[in-house]
Amino acid sequence: MSRTHLFLLLITAALMAALIGTFTSTSESVDFARAFEEPGVVFKVSGTLDFDHPIEYDPVSSASTTVFHMLDRSGASHQVHLHEPKRTGLEQSESIDLYGKVENGEFHASKMLMKCPSKYNEQSHEMQWSAGYDAGADEPAQP
Q1: pLDDT in tens, the chain (143 residues)
Q2: All domains of the chain in start order, with CATH
Q3: Which of 86, 87, 77, 81 is nearest to 107 (CA)?
Q4: What is the pTM of this model?
Q5: Under a CB-based contact definition with an 8 Å cutoff, are residues 56 and 50 in contact?
């Protein structure tokens, strides 16, 4: 085999390994109990904001840390140290996905994804239909 063939073979193997690694990485959501069983391992924990506890964010002392409590899908509440500034709309979020790990008995998240409520609520949609909607018009029919 020539050097060119060996080089192409190595590049192909590296690309295959990257592709396999991408598709086999887990994005399965776990609860806090599982994350606390394996400290140091990065997990995705899904849940909702726990309104029984305040959100702590002080941009003066630590602008890159937000501390709050989250209820996981099993209903367990834990304190979370998010290493990002406080997001706008955190209190209105419908669900939260955190990517992080347990360190020293605390859950530390490096990434957060939020599902926020839709700006198109179901009630206004139903009101348009009950008022009479002409399928060819852009607006509901005027009474």
Answers
A1: 788 888 888 899 888 887 776 665 556 789 999 999 989 989 999 999 999 999 999 988 888 999 999 999 999 999 999 999 998 888 888 899 999 999 999 999 999 998 887 766 555 545 444 445 454 555 544 54
A2: 28-115 (2.40.50.140)
A3: 81
A4: 0.64
A5: no
